User: What shape does this take?
Amino acid sequence: MKIFRYITLFLFFIPGMISAQAQDTGILIMAHGGGEEWNQQVVEAAKPLSEKYAVEFAWGMSNYVTLQNGIDRLEAKQVKRIIAVPLFISSYSPIIRQTEYLFGLRDSLADRPMPLMHHSDKYLAMTNTEADPSDYKGHMLMPPNLQPLKVDKKVEIVMTKALDDHDVVAQILRDRILSLSNNPSNETVVLVAHGPNDEGDNAKWVANLESLSQKIQQYQLQQEGGKGFKQIFSMTVRDDANATVHDQAKAQLRAVVRQADFFGDVIVVPVFLSSGGREQAVAERLEGLHFKWSGETLLPDAKLSDFLVKSVEAAL
Assistant: This one.
């Protein structure tokens, strides 16, 4: 009887606890950003969170200005906790490490500062910093003397992981594959992501892709009565790396697709957040080869909202 009474009291207080927690919590969603349509897809994916929490967005590659503005807007709403969700393909990149530093979650910068593609003048004004010509790479500013963001000491910041090998990503990719599939047991799937410049980071990107491959195959075997795909390869194209690395990645991708085509059909799926041209470069570098391709990215897909919601729930 006592146990029943305790459970009843606990259940009675849960709604109030959840409401107070939501009121005290702000969500900062970070994404690369692009045109209006690109950004709107991210905003749409965050709607389930926006119905419950104060939600702000910070566009760019660890952009000091947009991150600081997002924090300021959330602090103005008197949140006590900020959950920062990086809507990026991988946690293993200078973008993520610099963001951790800016949030005060790292003691020092682990890499050269990410270039400011936008808001250079605002950055200099916000940080009361002066830049000289050597701080610029073309039109992009390499932020000099980059310091952590200004965050109220009473506000806690929690940063979640990027998409990585999350179950939701595997489910979306499987849907993309099945939209092109006719006979899984005769089909080789090639998952292709952008990939980083650093070799260590790239190995971790590929490891996450391989984990996604295993999950996709497991889902397929469970739901299709043991009819899995012939094989699934995981690769990165590394467009921003030096010419030698770039050319090696291109040659490797072409070799895998060409050889797999000798023994059945080939389905190539880009592992990119949203369409913006980069994913099409994958198809272009396979010109002349035979493969199935839709070019569909993770967005727009309603399931990506589940990733955002689950990331926040895990952080809480």
The radius of gyration is 22 Å. The longest helix spans residues 199-223. Residues 1-13 have pLDDT under 50 and may be disordered. The first strand starts at residue 25 and ends at 31.
